């Protein structure tokens, strides 16, 4: 899939005051019509958005959000694939390349809609920045998310036959890789105190899932007041349960993929689920080079990785 620089029709200048003309944004080649459709998308007042970069714990958070928004209907959650309950906005256009039907899964969803997207703030619907629908953003250490993305890509056929080290070297060869990741997260980090934004990290979810569940439930006005319900949520969202749950392992999604190498080597979607797992998967020199590129962008934005990952939060 060839990715190119794209320019949205307008920018969220009401939210973040910066020189947006310098913000490099990327999406699949020949997707202007799709991006315009998204830009002009009509939102409903009770729409909730989960926005992340790929492999940052989206599915994990999405499962929690869906349950909170749907009266903790565990039976439905265990019966229906997550992608059907909560569609991924860009999925259809990326897989089927059919503009006509691209937004249909979201349009046909009953309220309250929980919509997943990996788009940057400026590429999300303009109504979202104006009407300020609730957004939950999850960040993760980029090295862990890139390793995770590799295994995901192998299962989906895109990286089949390529080693993790080869894949990572290709990422490093892209001079925009660090900026794409850090700026995506930093924009939402800057909005983290807005009443309509809840910003967190995979690392924080690993450290204190109960705390995150509490925070998110209050953020969505669906507080969890009973300990047995909290216990049930913690169990349903545990790595072990999510790993064996067919509805949270993107089986429906995998079945849609048409790549000739799809399914030749399969890695479970809920795979390793660790913080800093990259340390025993990447070469030391790759880690050093990636961290140097990332640090440059962090410094330009006057923010640290600890801040973006909320590592210093109590
Ligand atoms: P790994 O490949 O590092 O294991 P996303 O949903 O954004 O694509 O993120 C997928 C990553 O989240 C995978 O990371 C997956 O294992 C991890 N994950 C999903 N559910 C999890 C859970 N309950 N606990 C810990 N990690 C989880």
How would you describe the overall organization of this protein?
This protein is an alpha/beta fold and 314 residues long. The chain has a single domain, classed as 3-Layer(aba) Sandwich (Rossmann fold), CATH 3.40.50.300. 47% of the residues lie in helices and 9% in strands. The strands form 2 sheets. A 4-stranded parallel beta sheet has the order 4-3-5-6, sandwiched between helices. Helix 11 crosses helix 17. The longest helix has 17 residues. The radius of gyration is 19 Å and the shape is globular. The protein starts with a strand and ends in a 6-residue tail after the last helix. The mean pLDDT is 96. Bound molecules: adenosine-3'-5'-diphosphate. The site of adenosine-3'-5'-diphosphate has 20 residues, from helix 2, helix 9 and helix 15. Belongs to the sulfotransferase 1 family.
Tally of helical runs:
18
Elements, N to C (H/E):
EEHEHHHHHHEHEHHHEHHHHHHH
Q: End-to-end span in angstroms?
A: 41 Å
What is the radius of gyration?
19 Å
CATH architecture level-2 label: 3-Layer(aba) Sandwich
Tally of extended strands? 6
| Main structural class | alpha/beta
The top-level CATH class is Alpha Beta
Largest sheet, described in full? 4 strands, parallel
CATH topology: Rossmann fold
**Order of strands, widest sheet:** 4-3-5-6
How confident overall, as mean pLDDT? 96
- Structure ligands: adenosine-3'-5'-diphosphate
* Whole-number tally of structural domains: 1
Proportion in helices: 40-55%
Regions with little confidence, pLDDT below 50 for 5+ residues: none
Fraction of residues in β-strands: 5-15%
Protein name: Sulfotransferase domain-containing protein
Pfam family, one: Sulfotransfer_1
Family: Belongs to the sulfotransferase 1 family.
Keywords: Transferase
């Amino acid at each position: 899939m060839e990715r190119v620089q794209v320019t949205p029709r307008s920018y969220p200048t009401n939210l973040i005051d910066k020189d947006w003309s310098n913000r490099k944004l990327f999406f699949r080649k020949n997707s202007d019509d799709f991006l315009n459709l998204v830009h002009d998308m009509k939102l409903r007042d009770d729409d909730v958005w989960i926005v992340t970069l790929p492999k940052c714990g989206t599915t994990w958070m999405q499962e929690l959000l869906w349950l909170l928004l749907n009266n903790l209907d565990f039976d439905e959650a265990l019966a229906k694939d997550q992608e059907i309950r909560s569609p991924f906005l860009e999925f259809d256009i990326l897989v089927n390349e059919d503009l006509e039907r691209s937004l249909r899964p979201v349009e046909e969803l009953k309220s309250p809609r929980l919509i997943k997207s990996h788009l940057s703030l400026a590429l999300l619907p303009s109504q979202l920045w104006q009407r300020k629908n609730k957004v939950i953003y999850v960040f993760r250490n980029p090295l862990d998310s890139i390793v995770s993305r590799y295994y995901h890509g192998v299962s989906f056929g895109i990286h089949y036959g390529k080693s993790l080290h080869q894949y990572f070297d290709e990422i490093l060869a892209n001079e925009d890789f660090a900026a794409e990741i850090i700026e995506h997260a930093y924009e939402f980090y800057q909005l983290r105190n807005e009443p309509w934004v809840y910003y967190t990290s995979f690392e924080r979810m690993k450290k204190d899932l109960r705390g995150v569940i509490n925070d998110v439930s209050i953020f969505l006005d669906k507080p969890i007041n009973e300990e047995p319900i909290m216990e049930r949520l913690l169990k349903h969202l545990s790595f072990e349960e999510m790993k064996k749950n067919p509805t949270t392992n993107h089986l429906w999604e995998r079945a849609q993929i048409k790549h000739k190498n799809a399914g030749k080597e399969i890695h479970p979607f809920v795979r390793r689920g660790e913080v800093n797992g990259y340390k025993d998967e990447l070469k030391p020199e790759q880690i050093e080079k990636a961290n140097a590129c990332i640090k440059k962008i962090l410094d330009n934005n006057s923010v640290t990785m600890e801040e973006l990952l909320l590592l210093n939060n109590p």
